[in-house]
Design goal:
Distance between the termini: 28 Å
CATH class of the largest domain: Alpha Beta
Order of helices and strands: EEHEEEEHEEHEHEEHEHEEEE
Largest sheet: 7 strands, antiparallel
Number of domains: 2
Bound molecules: flavin-adenine dinucleotide
Length: 253
């Protein structure tokens, strides 16, 4: 899989809610090569340090040569990136990592918060996919509008019951899996959510993949800063993942 560094120009940079940004970049080589579940390492302004930051690829357009990233501002790097306007050039390294198995008849994607980013690319690339998304409040589920054009069914939970089913994604998941039409689950979100979703999928005998987030430096498998212990030995999240079979992962690590 070719990895490239592209000087990518910002085509648009929008904020669906305060603190979250949707960044569309002209990046034809990465758009052409990327697979669902892969990520890029993006440069951030110099005063945020010299390390690139990893962000999942949310969407691509092969024909128009763009990639889309969706990120939450959590610290210096992402806050600095958020101040970059249309027309600015940013350096992007990618596509990186091992993505999801999308060779399924009818997968169920389960996402919480920014975990919905890499799953969006999966949804857009698959002809029949359903999504179960969870958020704390209705405001956080701006995702529903973004997913709708790509999915067969969309199920929503909110912690406070302000929209959809009250509770967590795990409140609704057993009922959906009991319906029996899904042949795989892909999940991305907080570790506790992924652990519980993986356990429920295992109860129903449905294969499950999880996408891990670990702080990383190079993104290329060289620096070992993102190494994690798995049931089959030590693995690098950046190169062996970020997507792993759910049964391989120790969620506390
Ligand atoms: C493969 C991968 C894909 C990712 N995709 C996305 C995405 O699509 N959208 C998105 O919003 N974020 C994503 N992240 C997380 C994102 O990389 C971090 O939020 C970002 O690097 C933080 O940089 P910063 O300089 O703004 O914050 P920092 O100042 O570095 O950190 C601020 C806070 O964020 C925490 N943090 C920093 N990096 C990570 C990390 N990698 N994982 C968990 N917590 C972290 C720190 O512990 C700290 O509490 C991804 C991470 C990985 C490893």
């Amino acid at each position: 899989m070719p990895k490239v560094i592209e000087e990518a120009r910002i085509l648009s940079h929008e904020a669906p809610i305060v603190g979250v940004d949707i960044l569309t970049l002209s990046s034809p080589q990465i758009a052409r090569a990327a697979l669902p579940g892969q990520f890029v390492q993006i440069s951030v302004p110099a005063d945020a340090g010299f390390l690139r930051r990893p962000l999942g690829i949310a969407e691509v357009s092969h024909t128009d040569g763009w990639i889309r990233l969706i990120y939450r501002q959590v610290g210096r790097g992402t806050e600095g990136l958020a101040s970059a306007g249309t027309g600015t050039a940013v350096s992007v390294l990618g596509p990186l990592g091992r993505g999801f198995n999308i060779a399924l008849k009818h997968p169920l994607l389960v996402g919480g918060g920014m975990g919905l980013t890499p799953l969006l690319f999966f949804a857009a690339a698959h002809p029949k996919v359903s999504v179960l998304m969870g958020g704390r409040t209705q405001e956080e589920l701006f995702w529903e509008e973004i997913y709708r054009p790509h999915v067969h069914e969309c199920f929503v939970t909110t912690d406070d019951g302000s929209y959809g089913t009250r509770g967590f994604v795990t409140t609704l998941l057993p009922r959906l899996l009991a319906g029996g039409s899904y042949d795989g689950v892909a999940v991305c979100g907080p570790p506790i959510m992924m652990e519980r979703v993986a356990a429920i999928a295992a109860e129903y005998g449905i294969p499950c993949e999880v996408s891990l987030e670990k702080r990383m430096a190079c993104g290329l498998g060289a620096c070992l800063s993102c190494a994690v212990d798995t049931k089959s030995g030590r693995r690098k999240v950046c190169k062996d993942g970020p997507v792993f079979p759910a049964g391989e992962v120790y969620y506390a690590s």
